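agent: user wants the structure for PGG domain-containing protein from Camellia sinensis. delegating to structure tool.
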Amino acid sequence: MYENKRNIFQVAILHHCENVFNLIYQMSEYKQIVTEMVDSYMNSMLHLVGKLAPHDKLNLVPGAALQMRRELQWFKEVEKLVNPYFKEFRNNNGEIPSTIFTREHKNLVAQGEKWMKDTGNSCTIVATLIATIGFAAAITVPGGNDGTSALTVFSKEKVFIVFIVSDAISIFTSTTSLLMFLSILTSHYAEEVDNRPCYLFLSITTMIVAFSSILYLVFGHNRAWILIPVTGLACLPITSFVSLVFPLLVDLISSTYGHGIFGTQSDRLFYYLASTTR
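agent: tool returned. relaying tokens verbatim.
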């Protein structure tokens, strides 16, 4: 037992050490006994996970919104392990776990809301500009008509197909992104963050592809060498965006669709001997 009669798993939860906490999945029937232990203040595992993680653990995840998501993942994971009785179990201060979680994370929720609102404002402007440019490019077809039909003079060119498809994808994804970011500005912060920036990244990429293809189509006919500088310049903003924002997108996707930080790490059973006195 450690300070305040806490076992190794309670200490791991308090300090958000997932590698130690995951050992609980390698225990047999003794796991239920461990999850029902309380410390000297009658705090259960669910009370302890409701406390704010240490700063060094919080800073492993960028942004207050993603930090809040990680905190929620910890709380929900422990909640699945403990007996449902502990959801309303009161410690010596008369507090239930959800009360502690709300109080401890009040400032983080406020920071996450501000982060989401600021991101929503910035990305809404960008999405609107992309949708406007894409729509203008679609109704103002380069080259004009061939004079005998309503088809553009470039309709049989393969590059023109690339332009049309890219422009369409850019319009649809930017419009979807715009509506999603507007939902941030018109709704309450739900302590969650999703993958709205992924749509914006896709719309930016396809817009650049559409512009590059039509630039080559108009000015690069019989001039293959133009394709090289056009491709190089098109890669510049995409590369810049990837280097600056892509790590955040990776964190968003991995935290939503990844295997997570919890789960069995080995098939070997873990034996832990401790006092079972409650």
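agent: one observation worth passing along. The longest helix spans residues 106-139.
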